[in-house]
Amino acid sequence: MNDPRRWLQPAPDGSWPIEVLLDEVPDLIFYVKDVQGRYVSVNETLRRRCGAQHKRDVLGRTAAEVFTGEPGHRFNEQDDYAMRHRRELRDVLEMYVGPQGEALWCLTHKLPVVNDDGVVVGLAGVSRDVPPLSERHADFARVAQALAFMHAHFARPLRTSALAAQVGLSEDSFERLMRRVCHMTPKQFLLRVRFDAALRLLRESRRSVADIAHECGYSDHSAFSRKFRAMTGFTPQEYRHRLQHAGRDD
């Protein structure tokens, strides 16, 4: 192996040497898929999060077969779109529901894999957990006021331009600063705040879905339910029932 770039390619036995490195990164999911969207390489983090006992239980299957519900189908649609349109998908905010009903947020990056003839033969991707927000970040003070405003008023329609004006920045400068400090755009951060609140209210209260939707910035509870299912794989009612059932099992 004189060319170190060959380390990024499958070995003669079909294994991927890069997995050895990425198996040791607990907050990052790595995968390679063929043109049909079937996994041909995964790291340990993906194996653990989908609940498989062994990597071989994942290989050869699509995301819809590995991740149950709406998220699996959404991942398949993303894969198909990226490969069909030769489009790189960068920093797509996604959410998984943890075993206690908590939100696990990540940013996904997918890239079509092209052979020497220019034909798309698969897809490589990573999903990294959104790191906790640190007040020790050098630029945290510059966005603190806008973050506090989003947390206090997330039920209201909030425009990025208005949030940027609060901290005395242009919209573009504010978005770059948010990416640097929070690893998300202002819209992504607001979506996370709203859904964290919705999950908490569904877990800890008996309020109706319509009330929760309104409190979390949605005037139409049907639109909220559709977005909730797209993000979590469950309707709000199914999510609440799932937690109640899990509590009885404990």
UniProtKB/TrEMBL annotation:
InterPro entries: AraC_XylS_family_regulators, Homeodomain-like_sf, HTH_AraC, PAS, PAS-assoc_C, PAS-like_dom_sf, PAS_4, Tscrpt_reg_AraC-type_HTH. Residues 144-242 form the HTH araC/xylS-type domain. Keywords: DNA-binding, Plasmid, Transcription, Transcription regulation. GO terms for molecular function: DNA-binding transcription factor activity; sequence-specific DNA binding. Gene3D superfamilies: Homeodomain-like, PAS domain. It comes from the Bacteria. This is Putative transcriptional regulator, AraC family. Residues 90-142 form the PAC domain.
